[in-house]
Structure formats: C-alpha cells, structure tokens
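Fold this: ABC transporter ATP-binding protein
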Amino acid sequence: MIDDPRLAASQPRNLTSGQTAPPATPAIEITGLRKTYAPAGRGAPREALRGIDLTIPAGSIFGLLGPNGAGKSTTINILAGLVRKTEGRVTIWGFDQDVNPRQSRAAIGVMPQELNIDPFLSPRVSLEMQAGLYGVPPRERWTDELLALVGLSDQAEAYSRNLSGGMKRRLLLAKALVHRPQVLVLDEPTAGVDIGLREMLWTNVRRLNAQGMTIILTTHYLEEAQSMCDEIAIIDRGQLVTRASTSDLLAAADRKVLVIDSGGASAPPMPEGVAVSVRDRGRLAFTYAPSQVSADAILEALRLGGVRVRDLSTEEADLEDVFRSFVG
C-alpha cells in the first residue's frame, strides 16, 4: 500500500454517531475527462465524454443531470473504477485514481441503477460479502445497523430473490454503504419505486449528508433534484453545458406566471413581453420575464382595463424549464 498522510481521512467512520469534518480539498475533481469506446464492427469510435472538467465540493448534495446517452453513467462508472478513462485526471477525496487506485475506490460507494443482486443470498450475507470485498474487518462491520437503516431487518435472512423490487433497491443502498464511503453516488435511485421507498431513501440521504457524506445524484425526476441538490451540473453529448447552484439555475430561467381569477373577464392589452393564456374555469395566466416586466405592470394594466382581480397566485420557473433550455 502506498504510504499517504491523507489515508487517515479515508478510514471508516461511524456514520450513525457523527463524522469527521469534510476536507479542505473537494470530494471529486475531474479534469479533461474523455472516454472513447472502440468501434463495433466497422463502425466509427464513439466519444462518450469530450473533456469534462468538474469539481464537486465535500459535504454537498450534487446533482448530475442530462438526457439519456449524455455521458452520466460513463462518468459514474469511471468514478467507481468500473470503466477505464481514455484521457484526463480523476481525484476522489484527495486521491488520484492513477496514483492511489485502492484509496480512491475505497472513498466512494455507488448505488447502481441495475439490480445487481445475487438472488440466492440473503441481505445479511450479501452485506457481509460486500464488506469482505472491501477489506472491512469483521469487528468494523455494521451489518445490523445497515439493515435497520434501510428497513430490511425483518428480511435479513430471506433469499434476495423473494424481496420486492423496492426492497432490492434498499439492499443496493446498504451495499453501497458497507465500507462507510465519504462519497455516495445514487444512480437513478427512485426509478420505478413507490412513494414510501422514495421518502425513506431521501430521509436517509439527508441524514447521511448531515453527518458529512457527499452525495452525487443522477435522476430523471427533476423535482427531486430541485428539492434535494445544493448544486447541479448538466451534461449533454459528453460535454458539461452548465454548472451552478440550484437557486442560480432557477433564477437564470427568468420565467414567472401570474394566474388570476377575473370572473370570466377577458385580458386587456398587456405590456410588451407578456404572454396571455386562458386556463380552466376562465382563469387568466400571464407569463413574463421578471427581468423585463414587473408584476406591478401587469396588475396596473388589469386595473386600467377595468378587470377585477378576485384571486391570484404565482408560479415560479422549475428545474424542468432550465433543463429544457440547455438540452432541448
């Protein structure tokens, strides 16, 4: 093993009773990351990643978003050590993958999208085997605590093949945590799961993050990313197209909707830049850019037009608007 003073930061910590503070260095540093897959038959090589530079701060919940085929899974598999990069530098918790591969791999846990579970092993045996693969000594394992954390204590001795789909996803989360990683990657963790499992997952994620764990989330449910993530990066066609705090991304959408109940009255002439539509029960919706038009200007136009406002509400831009603006 390579002697490195940073090894102290990579040792197992008790996630149920507090953690050491995040290091001054970022949790993840990616520089010039490229991945080109060899051609199939006579086809051309496929460039999955085209020079990504990305820094993920320690202790954050970070969203990695993008359409299908954008390069998210390739990036995650490179971080996990499952795919070899073509070019670039990857550092996890201060450890360069090329210099300290063992330490960098020990610092990260991945909950994959695929249900890669041995159907003939019980959850308890699966976790014990996973811990052994990571070299966790028996005295440092926390199998019972993990089973309780993900709500599988009652199914600890059952065959995994008899677990429901939601329970199998819980087991995937527990397997990703057996070695107490500093960074946890959740790859589409709530795809096809019920509301109860989704709430349990997010409760546990918030708890782990509060204890200092860095969370990287990929999801197609943009409302989840909007409510969970501190920062978001969007990847499209193997390139990083934007990265900002969630609040800054939403502010950049520059879109707002003012909805009023006018009692069936038609909309009077509006200031330039305001689009008007009619919704259910005759309500009027005014879509505008706050940077160009104020809500006061719309209300004043209604007053001058003799339209009485019985009730009103506003709708802010959401992450879906931002996502569409970048990837179409």
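Residues 254-317 form a domain with the Alpha-Beta Plaits fold (CATH 3.30.70). The chain has a mean pLDDT of 88.
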